[in-house]
Design brief:
38% helix; binds pyridoxal-5'-phosphate; 13 helices; 383 residues; alpha/beta; 15 strands
């Protein structure tokens, strides 16, 4: 079976992890801050807060922005469930903004309309989480303009987009957001096995997130609320979690980061092969935008119109022929859990139409020419 995504580990990556295993620090050692610093530098952000998953990063990002009971958070229905769940963890509610079918990204027009309506009803969200689906940035400049107009905070879910760029700036620099979140799950672009990072330029937000990833505890002299009892002293100042990244994970992430640009070039080259091979077929692919350099986490194609039967049969047939086509994503509001919260079929019609057209083909750095040719020929025979 050719998977749709897969990690790319080098002998240097493996050696970096072994080195940690032979060292004194398996957790809370030097590699986590080194990884944070290296990725913050790469993205041109002031602070990086490494955690055990992007899901945890989204959670502490929401908390740092003050998301709580009686608040609402908006995200895209076409995302992994974690982009929405993070708000529920904080006791807030979730709502969605429908997408543009051409890009699969949150529609700025729909967002503008929805904000206008919410403002009238006194029901503005506390935060919005745009999702850079497949590795391409949302239109952050326009989204930021709207967010500022209505005093709403922004978290970029860039789980797919590390190494990509928007307006010639690396994604993660938070030029148009409060916080950006990356995932290092093995299927993503670089991996630390499990892991995530939140980036921000705001010192206060960084401190809040550092505290919540480790039990709400602080021991830095400048932050203490009471006088220190002695050299052993630490304070729990809020209710936090154990969301720490281990040294093994950080060493792996740090080592992988060295090849990030190489990974992104390879992914772009593979995507370009697909684009030209499929140009004659009656399918489209997510439209690249001129001001974006996609990280191409995913290569998503769309049937020319919503067709539940055909969608299912193409994906099933691809799998029967050894190609793991996958759907990114089932609209979150159609998940049983979210239906129980009151969301219904028909709530986000563009996302629902997209769901009957879209599927992802194998795209990862170790995909061989022969494998890609096989995928292309199988697609040509099927479509
Ligand atoms: C993978 C993913 C997440 C969650 O990442 P984890 O590191 O697995 O917690 C969140 N949002 C999106 C869009 C993702 O693709």
């Amino acid at each position: 079976m050719i998977p749709y995504g897969k990690q790319d580990l080098s002998s240097e990556d493996i050696a970096a992890v072994v080195e940690v295993l032979e060292s004194d620090w398996l957790t809370q050692g030097p590699n986590v801050p080194l990884f944070e610093q290296a990725l913050a530098n790469y993205c041109n952000a002031n602070f990086g807060i490494a955690v055990n998953s992007a899901t945890s990063a989204l959670h502490i990002a929401c908390l740092a922005l003050g998301v709580g009971k009686n608040d609402c958070v908006w995200t895209s229905p076409i995302t992994f469930v974690a982009s929405a769940n993070c708000a529920l963890y904080c006791g807030a509610s979730v709502d969605f903004v429908d997408i543009d079918i051409s890009s699969g990204l949150m529609s700025v027009e729909k967002l503008a309309e929805k904000l206008k309506q919410a403002s009238k009803n006194n029901a503005l969200p506390k935060a919005i989480i745009p999702v850079h689906l497949a590795g391409q940035s949302c239109d952050m400049q326009s989204i930021k303009k709207l967010a500022d107009q209505y005093n709403v905070r922004l978290i970029e879910d860039a789980s797919h987009a590390i190494g990509g760029a928007y307006q010639n700036q690396k994604i993660g620099g938070c030029q148009f957001s409060d916080i950006t979140v990356f995932s290092f799950h093995p299927v993503k672009i670089i991996t630390s096995a499990e892991g995530g990072m939140a980036l921000t330029n705001d010192k206060h937000l960084a401190q809040m997130m550092q505290k919540s990833r480790s039990h709400g505890i602080s021991n830095s002299p400048g932050e203490l609320l009471q006088e220190s009892h002695g050299p052993w002293y630490y304070e729990q100042q809020s209710l936090g979690f154990n969301y720490r990244m281990t040294e093994l994970q950080a060493a792996l992430g740090l080592s992988q980061l060295k090849r990030l640009d190489e990974f992104i070039s390879k992914r772009n080259a593979l995507a370009a092969n697909y684009n030209s091979a499929f140009s004659e077929l009656s399918i489209s692919h997510l439209l690249p935008k001129t001001n974006c350099y996609s990280a191409y986490h995913l290569y998503i194609v769309l049937l020319n119109k919503p067709d539940k039967q055909k969608h299912k049969s193409v994906i099933t047939e691809l799998r029967a022929q050894g190609i793991t086509a996958q759907v990114h994503y089932i609209p979150v509001h159609l998940q049983p859990y979210y239906q129980n919260l009151g969301f219904k079929v028909g709530d986000f019609p563009v996302a629902e139409a997209y769901y009957q057209q879209a599927f992802s083909l194998p795209l990862f750095t170790k995909l061989t020419d022969d494998e890609q040719t096989y995928v292309i020929n199988t697609m040509k025979a099927l479509i």
